[in-house]
Amino acid sequence: MTTGVTSASSKGLTTDIAPLLEVRNLVVEFPTRRGTLRALDDVSFTIAPGEVLGVVGESGAGKSLTGASIIGLLEPPGRIAGGQILLNGQRIDHLDAHRMRRIRGKEIGAIFQDPLTSLNPLYTVGRQLTETIQTHLDLSASQARTRAIELLASTGIPAPQARIDHYPHQFSGGMRQRVVIALALAAQPKLIVADEPTTALDVSIQAQIIALLKTLCREQGTAVMLVTHDMGVIAETADRVAVMYAGRVAEIGPVAEVIHRPRHPYTVGLMGSIPAVGANKERLAQIDGAMPRLGAIPAGCAFNPRCPMAFDECRSQRPNLMQAGASMAACWLHEDNLSQEPSA
Amino acid sequence: MSLIDRFGEQLDRGRAETTATATATTTSPAQAQAQAQASAPATPAPLVVVEDIAKVFDVSAPWLNRVLEGKPRSLLRAVDGVSFEIPQGQTLALVGESGCGKSTVARMLVGLYPTSRGRVLYKGTDISQLSTGSGRAMRSQLQMIFQDPYASLNPRWKVLDIIAEPIRVHRLIQGQAAITERVEALLGQVGLAAADAQKYPHQFSGGQRQRLSIARALASQPQFLVCDEPTSALDVSVQAQVLNLMREIQQRESLTYLFISHNLAVVHHVSDHVGVMYLGRIVELAPKRTLFAMPRHPYTRMLLDAIPDMQMTGKSRTPVAGEVPNPLNPPPGCTFHPRCPHANDRCKSERPVLMRLADGAQVACHAIEEGRA
Question: pLDDT-derived band of residue A344, with 50, 70 and 90 as boundaries?
Fold first, then answer.
């Protein structure tokens, strides 16, 4: 969130400050009857303290799986088959359920897409908040309640003293998502994994929630991993952005770079396909075809069958992230910094 | 549904209609006609004219509970006096947040809901009250594309049967060979292969399924397509494919679209005219350029401000205070007044009607009328 972080992260992949979260060569696999599916393949990135990293991609690109792996909520049979996840330099990817529970909520908060399913319908929001607070902080019941009221007030819920004893169904969608944010921030975690926090909300409410998330995280110095498919939300919230495609990071870099000077042909296509108010285009740029299924990822670069710039190397060898301007892109066009700009 | 419920519903419908007409202060049919005549010279003859339609849903507790617990009858005015017209070959987009009644308008237009009040004129004929039988011929010219391509295709039917269904229902082509040929041609039109006719819906991706929905809608050679959020379940790159396809087909077949969406950027891309809905009413109706260049109604301005801007990275949009009120108990006067920065006493008591401005835009707002905003 601070400008210092943004300028320090000019290399895109890493920041000069010791990272809060480091994901190294993460591999997630799903064993199935027809063989093992590799859902995440060699995903690496870092998040600095107080930084907002946006993760975008189409459905099935692996962005939510990345978030789930970090908070230790990978659904079986999915499993981490390789790589490491480090929080403050400590590995958290191989912790048992009990130890992970203490990290989740205390060190890493989570916000999910649907605020109705992330709250327990049978308990008042106050009870859910005080439970979370007392699990992670050493506070008495009345102190926890005071803290819960403060949290609700800070998320902009009117009349928090009265609302604290209401049940989730008595809140509207936007208000519920505020409660979920209050829950995520309850133990003042250093990192929040927000998985599509605004997708289920209307545009006017979406703007309120994004503004709230930004303000609260800036005040508390919380870093955010913001998973979304909405490039607009990324544009106004994130410091850096990682673009995912078929389980890999296709491009990662400062948000202005990725949006205005995309380096990977997939990012170029993705940016061109977003309709914008103000642009008078007869046709939107479209990427033909669809993202490959996990079982049928082509050899070489996963994007090569849809790529207008593909050449022989792309069909046989898988590119790793390489320097491309101020960003990093997994694309052979940027080998030895050929500086061939892919055009829209 | 039990017999008692059904009887109750009929009663309610009658009562709802009387209350609805009694409280109606929005554009009357006469006004709508006057407006239609006023705009006639500028645009081609309208293919679809909607006059003051309304839809009232009865959401009361069951009869027994009402009697025992003394609960009142509650009526939900999902759509309350909406009028517009769509010229041949053009696209009218309706935008608004969830619950504003835009999908209900779409469903009334194609006859999936009967109207509680008002008329829907297609080529001058009122189609809102046609029975299933007599409306059939007319309905082959009106087709609908639904939001969720996973729910709108029968998973147990082959693509061939899904697309051939409107052809068979309307008896447009006789003979299996001829029907297969037509289905294959339709698949070609939407960018799929003829061999796909033998597959099932689950074998297709979301974007391909929406292409199938489009092919099915085109099967009866309609002139008017109602598209209810056709791309909101799709990823952006696939959305671009579907929007491009819909535009190509519109130009080739000179189709008329009613396009429902909550995404203003998509609306900007596809539409000729835009209607902004709030709590069951149109608050602003204007040509696309006018609406986006000069939004009048405070709600329209709010919606436009709420669009995330890709260009001004780092700058935040203006969040708007408040939420959509409960449609069961809408505020009196202008329903937007609790969220409106320009609201005064008049807005809290008197419901504004759509008025036409010099540049063709229509706005329902006292503040605009009085020059306060």
Answer: very low
CB contact under 8 A, B241 and A288: yes
- Please indicate, yes or no, if residue B357 is contained in any of the structural domains: yes
pLDDT digits (tens, 9 = 90+) for A96-135: 888 898 898 889 999 988 877 889 999 999 999 999 999 8
CA distance A119 to A150: 19
Residue of B nearest to A205 (CA): B323
In a domain, B32, yes or no: yes
CATH number of the domain where residue A60 is located? 3.40.50.300
Instruction: Tell the residue number behind the tokens 């809060």, with chain if given.
Output: A20
Residue A258 lies inside a defined structural domain of this protein: yes
For residue B126, what are the β-bridge partners?
A: B121
Q: For position B6, what pLDDT does the model report? A: 46
Closest chain A C-alpha to B20 CA, distance in angstroms: 28
Q: Specify the 3-state DSSP secondary structure of A122.
A: coil
Task: Name chain A contacts of B244, Cβ cutoff 8 Å.
Answer: 283-284, 286
**What amino acid occupies position A214?**
K
pLDDT tens for each residue of B183-230: 999 999 898 888 999 999 998 888 889 999 999 999 999 999 999 989
Smallest Cα distance from A281 to chain B, Å = 7
- The number of domains in chain A is 1
Provide, for chain B, the percentages of residues in helix, strand and coil under a 3-state DSSP scheme, each rounded to the nearest 5. 40, 20, 40
Host domain of residue B26:
3-141+222-369
SS (H, E, C) A57-77: CCCCCCHHHHHHHHCCCCCCC
**B24 in contact with A, Cβ within 8 Å:** no
Does residue A203 sit within a domain? no
Instruction: Pull the structure tokens for residue B292.
Output: 């986006």
> Is B318's Cβ below 8 Å from some Cβ in A?
yes
Show which of residues 204-263 on chain A sit within 8 Å of chain B, judged by CB atoms: 204-208, 210-211, 214, 229-233, 235-236, 255-256, 259-260
Higher pLDDT, B275 or B28: B275
Q: Is A303 within a domain?
A: yes
- Cβ-nearest to A236 among B262, B316, B323: B316
Residues of A in contact with B323 (CB under 8 A): 172, 174-175, 204-205
Which CATH number do you get for residue B324? 3.40.50.300
**Are the C-beta atoms of residues A65 and A78 closer than 8 Å to each other?**
yes
Whole-angstrom Cα distance, residue A240 to residue A234?
Answer: 9
A122 touches chain B (CB under 8 A): no
What is the domain count for chain B?
A: 1
Phi, psi (5° rounding) for residue B340?
Answer: -90, 130
Does A231 sit within 8 Å of B314, measured CB to CB? Answer: no
Q: Is residue B265 part of a domain?
A: yes
Tell which A residues from 164 to 183 touch B, by Cβ distance under 8 Å. Answer: 172, 174-175
Residue B308 lies in a domain: yes
The pairing of strands A327-329 and A322-324 is antiparallel
The parent domain of residue A14 ranges over 1-98+191-196+223-275+292-344
Please indicate whether, in this complex, the C-beta atoms of A59 and B324 are within 8 angstroms of each other.
Answer: no
pTM: 0.80
Answer yes or no: are the C-beta atoms of B314 and B308 closer than 8 Å.
no
Token pair 């928090």: residue: A160
What residues does A53 pair with on adjacent strands?
A: A225, A240
* C-alpha distance from A325 to closest chain B C-alpha (Å): 19
Q: How many CA atoms lie within 13 A of B5 on its CB side?
A: 8
Helices first, then strands: H and E counts in chain B:
14, 12
Chain B contact set for A255 (CB, 8 A): 313-314
- Model ipTM? 0.77
In this structure, which amino acid lies at residue A255? V
Residue A332: inside a domain, yes or no? yes
Give CA–CA dist A86/A67, Å, rounded. 13
